[in-house]
Amino acid sequence: MPEMSFRVRWPDASEQLCYSPSSTTRDFFTPGEAYPLDEFVERSRRALNLASERVRQRYGYACSSAAAQLQQIEQTAARFAATPDARVTVQSFEE
User: Fold this and answer.
1) Are 38 and 44 in contact (CB under 8 A)?
2) Computed from CA positions of residues 71, 76, 82, 86, in that sequence, does the dihedral angle turn out positive or negative?
């Protein structure tokens, strides 16, 4: 199961490289697409939980790195919760 990263740009123009233990994350995002903040967090949650579940199915345990990445995304997103029309752009996938 190929791990991958996806680069995002937050509403303040800062960038973050996010980790996923599975390439299934590609099914949830389109490079160049700007997502409303809440939608980005929800898609991240679904993508990383699915990726972690794939690790569990293969190795018998969940991926703690996926859980940590999701927590980091949620914490960063919370900084922009009061920003009107906040959007997060998925810039690229990296393998």
Assistant:
1) no
2) negative
The closest of 41, 50, 44, 61 to 22, measured between CA atoms, is 50
Asked if 41 and 74 touch (Cβ cutoff 8 Å), the reply is: yes
pLDDT tens, 52-74?
A: 999 999 999 999 999 999 999 99
12-45 confidence digits (pLDDT tens)? 999 999 999 999 999 999 999 999 999 999 999 9
CA 2 to chain centre: 16
Q: Can you give the pTM of this predicted structure?
A: 0.94
Domain boundaries defined on the chain: 4-94
**DSSP 3-state of 73:** helix
Cα angle at 27 between 46 and 64, to 5 degrees? 45
HEC string of 18-36 equals: EEECCHHHHHCCCCCCEEE
